[in-house]
């Protein structure tokens, strides 16, 4: 590098970082120290050694200024001067390590010479690293679509019980929301906000080449719960249609490709990773205390004079919450059999308590794989198996809300535990000598007398074969035979006379012994060929073509008995299956490493549709231009990468609940629809609506973007703009009674637009021998609008969604010209002091009356923008990392507050219910569920994780090291929302299990 170029480079680092808002002076090419004759050195005099000198240049012979020259395994080091020269005193027999940002590191053993010259080659690993895409791999620099890959070193640190948690805030356009603070809970993942309404908005997830079934698991299990985060090598997210169209019928909502770790090329390596954690409740609401309750209740209208309160002072939240302890242990062994068969085997154990008493989660995992090669590396066989067992002791979903509402003057127990009286010794509301059928359940009794358990076993595996043709190595033949087998056993056990059995089940105190078993099986076969050849050194051509077959099968059985074995409801059973057949192909062409073309076509047939609508065709095309490789830029020392991308493609959607939507089917009715014959209750069956013309939902996507890099990719990132249009929207709508077997029908009707901008920047402001500092930021803006919803659209023609309490109570709608999940509420009226007027609403003409006229608020549960931020500093053996994310523009309906009102404190049967101080101060006598007063901004910024670690290197040999780390998760949340947590997948705050704040100490040992 020339002197002027180096000075120009550092000036540009400063300016570029200032433009990025970082305002950091780069010191990566400078080090402070004492100086010998113009040469900077951090080395002291060395006894029994010698003084050497030398020069460091790039491949073209230009001097590299500020290159680091250090003695391996020692602190002796220096940096090169303005001419690339250095001087250093080194011990006899020393090995030098020469490094420079953006160049491959070089090692050299010092001999008898006194002077040395070194040439470093540019390190293009960032651009040349392979990225996993559908049915193949491609170099990052050759990508034409919107694809982001992050490896295990970039994932969130700290205790990660589930694979999704490691992805929070990491990728632009990807929003990951943990559904609950319970250990092992699943997450809602949205890529570019999703493209559907009534059909699934979940992305397709592919694990080591196996597209998994991510439909609902009985008992609410996590679809990725059995994947140990410690086994994951990379997440690759395919976002635009150019990248996803190769997956065709299931790719409208994006694709996440998970690749797990493989065997090592060297000798045997052992890794142990473990941690111990302590979780505490981060935030909770505070209802009236017992003394406040006693003073306030008599002032409420309708409460009889002289009502009798209890004598206890019970904090029901203290009774249900606890400090949660967790441990995790993972051991892996990897190696290479005779240098021909890399292998890796790992086992893991997770034992995590929840912050709610009786909630406990444990998991056992196994991951094993081997990849032997034969016939001079022409034949490669891959065998992979992941197995897991999860045991989840769950809690009732409404226990947190009940702890807020329960009378604080009542005791937890009124008799001996296990006494044979209503409530089994726990306090229960009685009306005379009988328990009340309508009452809030004692939250402690809910935890201790109800046993909800989900046991889930899963195995995902595949065998792959890759054959590189002898004599025609450009052609590779591939086969992938895989499976995903799952069994879930969900049980509910409640004793006779337990309090909750008077408000549910038979409502007469009869206990419950419920067993529900779900079996799911997904098998697949993919056969495809890859061809690649470079013609005349400039024409890089590759093609892929294949055939796919996949079969999904599921079966469900349940029984509902009393504790004595009496059948309470007739057993239910269903069995279902569907098939996918696919033909797919892709062509890639690159000219002179500058101009790139990718074209794909996939044709899918689904047994979910009738014969005439069975096949769907999903094409895509993408163009890219690597501007930085042009002659006028290729020698530019500032701009290291600039690639422009343009793509268009179509993807499909067929992920609906019913596997036979085009034919008449029957579903077992709810228990309430049972009929009695003799002394036994029988469940009835009801016919389902059907549509013989139902077909694929199709999403067309335009994407324009560019990838950039400066200063040998010391600063790099991407920018994407996209627009999606979904047609033949699978939507559940109301139909005229008598025209079908139901008044609602899922059919292809409707259209929706979606557009957005994504931006990411990653930089390393500081890079010296001892200190590096990395920063990353991603930002996404996205909005959607429904453009068609029914045959004839009008303001009164919409679909209700967002269910709250009771039957037919909804607070959101799908409506034309509105964003999905727009809140549909009544406009609250206020007095001159800004206080809401009870039962008064603003009408469309501006007048105020008691008519509860509801309207589309233009406020949606979907965020308009979200961001992720991460930074980490390495100083010698120390590590300090921080991760954060936020979302903006979403609204939250605070059902917890909306459901409370003053007269709730006392029922005509004589029971009491607690309220929040805000409910007391608001003064609404009766419930105002549909008032938009309870709709709040859900903006937040959360500091997810802080990790401090130290690595002990070379414990007993060069390959052994030990890393200790202390981490805090869910550190703090900045928000104006009045509830516990604004980060909700559906925008409705109801019965949410709080996210804990977790402190952990982890150990990572390698040898």
UniProtKB/TrEMBL annotation:
GO terms for cellular component: cell outer membrane. The chain crosses the membrane at residues 12-31. It comes from the Bacteria. Residues 139-255 form the TonB-dependent receptor plug domain. Residues 453-971 form the TonB-dependent receptor-like beta-barrel domain. The keyword Transport applies. SUPFAM superfamilies: Carboxypeptidase regulatory domain-like, Porins. Its main location: membrane. The keyword Thylakoid does not apply. Keywords: Cell outer membrane, Membrane, TonB box, Transmembrane, Transmembrane beta strand, Transmembrane helix, Transport. It is a multi-pass membrane protein. InterPro entries: Beta-barrel_TonB, Beta-barrel_TonB_sf, CarboxyPept-like_regulatory, Plug_dom, Plug_dom_sf, TonB-dep_OMP_SusC/RagA, TonB-dep_OMP_SusC/RagA_CS, TonB-dep_rcpt-like. It is found in: Cell outer membrane. Belongs to the TonB-dependent receptor family. This is SusC/RagA family TonB-linked outer membrane protein. The lineage of its organism: Bacteria, Pseudomonadati, Bacteroidota, Bacteroidia, Bacteroidales.
